[in-house]
Amino acid sequence: MYLCMCKSITDQQIRQAFEQGVRTIGDLSVRFGVGIECGKCLEDIRQFLDACAVSPASSAVTPPLSAVAAHSAQSAEATLPAPPEKPAPERAAWFAVDL
């Protein structure tokens, strides 16, 4: 399950990083860039890291159902807005300028 939608980071990637010695959100931010875009994932990732710390490495830890996951489920159900009624005007030419 994705814990960080902005950087497409899964619970498996975070578990693997934990097994390699990552222990803090800062470590994960350096490694994966989590928390840099919107920051909605930070609390869920912190909970997942805490769960990894208390559980043995061989047992699976269930990632928390977050607002990010709930939001992605809602956005999948949402419809796209209608296209504009009047299309953009066609241009005779486009110019590129080297600066």
Automatic annotation (TrEMBL):
Pfam families: Fer2_BFD. The keyword Protein biosynthesis does not apply. Residues 2-50 form the BFD-like [2Fe-2S]-binding domain. Its cofactor is [2Fe-2S] cluster. The keyword Electron transport applies. It comes from the Bacteria. One of its GO terms (molecular function) is metal ion binding. Keywords: 2Fe-2S, Electron transport, Iron, Iron-sulfur, Metal-binding, Transport. InterPro entries: BFD-associated_ferredoxin, BFD-like_2Fe2S-bd_dom, BFD-like_2Fe2S-bd_dom_sf. Belongs to the Bfd family. PANTHER family: BACTERIOFERRITIN-ASSOCIATED FERREDOXIN. This is Bacterioferritin-associated ferredoxin. It comes from Candidatus Competibacter denitrificans Run_A_D11.
